[in-house]
Amino acid sequence: xxxxxxxxxxxxxxxxxxxxxxxxxxxxxxxxxxxxxxxxxxxxxxxxxxxxxxxxxxxxxxxxxxxxxxxxxxxxxxxxxxxxxxxxxxxxxxxxxxxxxxxxxxxxxxxxxxxxxxxxxxxxxxxxxxxxxxxxxxxxxxxxxxxxxxxxxxxxxxxxxxxxxxxxxxxxxxxxxxxxxxxxxxxxxxxxxxxxxxxxxxxxxxxxxxxxxxxxxxxxxxxxxxxxxxxxxxxxxxxxxxxxxxxxxxxxxxxxxxxxxxxxxxxxxxxxxx
Length: 274
Hints:
Largest sheet: 25 strands, antiparallel
Distance between the termini: 127 Å
Radius of gyration: 37 Å
């Protein structure tokens, strides 16, 4: 004669007159424990563990099975989930989490030092990846796409909006940036207080260098070449067009200029006109 499955039930009356219960049936164990206004429950079956705990307006649940742990928490309009997987030896493997609150959706994945996260809110989509000191991020909002990479204090970034493409690189104190809009390409380099910039537009080529209060600039357009140097309130400029060379110097309120245009040399020293 075969014996019927055995059902066991136990109950314990706690000091605060609340009751803790446990039920076992065919390998299934169900337990519950009330404490204050909180009711905790747990179910175990063949390595699977499910637990839940409601407290106030917060509802928490957790499931564990063969190294996989799934948990969720709901509070008001916020819903959070997390999944973890542990490899053999207790080494943490993959962790996935998500949180939804209002119109914002967040996701995060971690695996062996790799972390990937994303956040969506309205028309804005943000992503970020981290791996061994390397961080890559991107953000899309409307027609604007921004990217950034960081590694050991080096940073590369780019932003595209409409017809404008911007890039920036930082490496060991050197900063290089460029911006392209239509047919115009602008570049700028900064290093230890030195700044160099250039902007070609149409047939005009502009350069500028700044260092310790000194500014040097040049502009080339067709056959015209202009240069200007400024330092501590002093200004020197020159312009060459065809066979004409114009120069001007300003120093402490004094101005000196010259314009040789063929003919006789205006200087006593004729070598100055050669």
